[in-house]
Write a structure and sequence with these properties.
2 domains; 2 helices; about 15% helix; mainly beta; 4-stranded antiparallel β-sheet; Neuraminidase
């Protein structure tokens, strides 16, 4: 190999190595990903459960079922590579906040009853704080803040809160609620200091906004099942910069949405009124909004309520560290290949 070819190959190898390192540091998986699906009434036993799905193959595996989840699992959030946080709702002051060990399926009860109210959904901040929504079962509801071990920190009352998400782009916590927009359904940003909130996109028309997901471009996606009538469910896109809402996709009874680290959008329904007894997991075309059934081999869903997985955007601290590591790697690799050429 002549000097030019060696130099060219070294240059390509350097660039490729830096790119791979950058993707790994910044949280973008280079291998098949796994998503986690919560089902309120998981077949065939009919109890609440969590199923992991390998996105490359559609291969399912039951992570856990029943126990503290009972028959009322609603919200699910990815905490780490080893744990998930789940919420078992409750109309009789019997809601549970549960940590799930992904490898063993072991459930650990973090909090129950009391401050949870009719809990719906969890979100997790980088410092381990867990935010849990409560729709109030007809009352004011709100958001309760817990330590990672389940201790209550504070409350944000009102809004009949439903879905909730931590946004790593700006460090904000957003939630949906049935009365957050001057008594109407909507989206709000939570003030993490005093528990108040600011209604967003107040001109948007939501019906029952549920799960929220952060897209890779910084937008928020919001699943709204509508009235459960055929065809009136929506996946909304909220542009944080312009405070505007548009419709990404339409369907039947869509309650769940999630975006993986490669930008694939998922959605799920709570039984779509077209196939008796079955719910569906979909991928969503981000250009056309078309829903495509995501085949999960040998696994039926009945009442799909949440989809989660690795956060698609690196936390700010990770970005800073990542840039430093990548820059250092670039210098080291460049010098190494310069000597070789």
């Amino acid at each position: 190999m002549n000097r030019y070819k060696r130099s060219h190959a070294a240059s390509f190898t350097t660039r490729h190595s830096i790119l791979v390192l950058a993707l790994i540091v910044c949280g973008h998986d280079l291998v098949a990903q796994t998503i986690y699906v919560a089902d309120h009434n998981l077949p065939p036993a009919g109890t609440s459960g969590v199923v992991s799905v390998a996105t490359a193959t559609g291969t399912p595996s039951t992570v856990t079922a029943n126990d503290y989840l009972g028959s009322d699992l609603f919200g699910l959030a990815y905490e780490s590579s080893t744990t998930l946080i789940a919420v078992k709702s409750g109309l009789s002051n019997d809601a549970n906040l549960v940590r799930i060990d992904i490898a063993t399926g072991t459930q650990t009860l973090l909090a129950t009853g009391g401050s949870l109210g009719k809990a719906i959904f969890p979100a997790i901040a980088p410092d381990g704080t867990i935010y849990v929504t409560n729709d109030g079962a007809g009352g004011p509801g709100g958001v309760t803040r817990y330590t990672s071990s389940g201790g209550v920190i504070s409350f944000a009352t009102g809004g009949q809160a439903m879905g909730i998400v931590y946004d790593p782009f700006n460090g904000s916590v957003y939630f949906t609620g049935l009365t957050v927009n001057a008594g109407n359904p909507g989206l709000a940003r939570l003030n993490l200091t005093d528990g108040t909130w600011t209604a967003l996109a107040t001109a948007a028309t939501f019906i029952q906004p549920f799960q929220i997901a952060v897209d890779i471009n910084g937008d928020l996606l919001i699943a709204d099942p509508g009235t459960s009538a055929t065809g009136d469910a929506r996946i909304f896109r909220y542009n944080v910069a312009t405070d505007t809402v548009s419709v990404l996709a339409t369907g039947n009874n869509l309650r769940a949405t999630y975006v993986d680290t490669s930008g694939v959008i998922y959605a799920g329904d709570y039984g779509d009124n077209s196939t008796a007894g079955l719910a569906h997991l979909y991928t969503v075309d981000r250009s056309t909004g078309a829903l495509t059934s995501f085949v999960v081999a040998g696994q039926d869903f009945a009442n799909l309520t949440a989809i989660t997985g690795v956060t698609p955007i690196p936390e700010p601290a990770q970005v800073g560290i990542g840039v430093g590591i990548v820059a250092l790697a670039a210098v080291v690799l460049s010098r190494r290949f310069s000597r070789q050429s």
